[in-house]
Amino acid sequence: THVREQDSYQELKKKHADLQKHARLLEERLQLYATAVNLLSRELQAVTERTEDTAKVRFMPRRPRQLP
């Protein structure tokens, strides 16, 4: 019984270590995704602001010059 409990305890410790490793990998991936989303958000904001600024500028058609 004691040996079986010891084996169960060792197996539980291994599973715990595996879960901790998996959690670290998920945290790293989450950080990567958050960085990518923030970067894309900033790029979208820059493009949107640039589009809004250029939309305020209107080009007037040129009248043909009359030659003397």
Spans where pLDDT lies below 50 across 5 or more residues:
none
Question: Could you give the distance between the termini?
Answer: 114 Å
Name the helicity range. Answer: over 70%
- Please describe the biggest sheet, giving its number of strands, its sense, and whether it closes into a barrel: none
H/E series, N to C? H
**Total helical segments:** 1
The percentage of residues in β strands lies in under 5%
Shape: rod-shaped
Q: Output mean pLDDT.
A: 86
Structural class: mainly alpha
Rg (CA only): 31 Å
State the total count of DSSP E strands.
Answer: 0
In short:
With 68 residues, the chain is mainly alpha-helical. It has one helix and no strands. The model has no long low-confidence stretch (mean pLDDT 86).
Characterize the structure shown.
The protein is mainly α and 68 residues long. It has a domain at 25-54. Helices cover 79% and strands 0% of the residues. It has one helix and no strands. The protein has one helix at residues 2-55. The longest helix is centred in the middle third of the chain and has 54 residues, at 2-55. The radius of gyration is 31 Å and the shape is rod-shaped. The protein starts with a helix and ends in a 13-residue tail after the last helix.
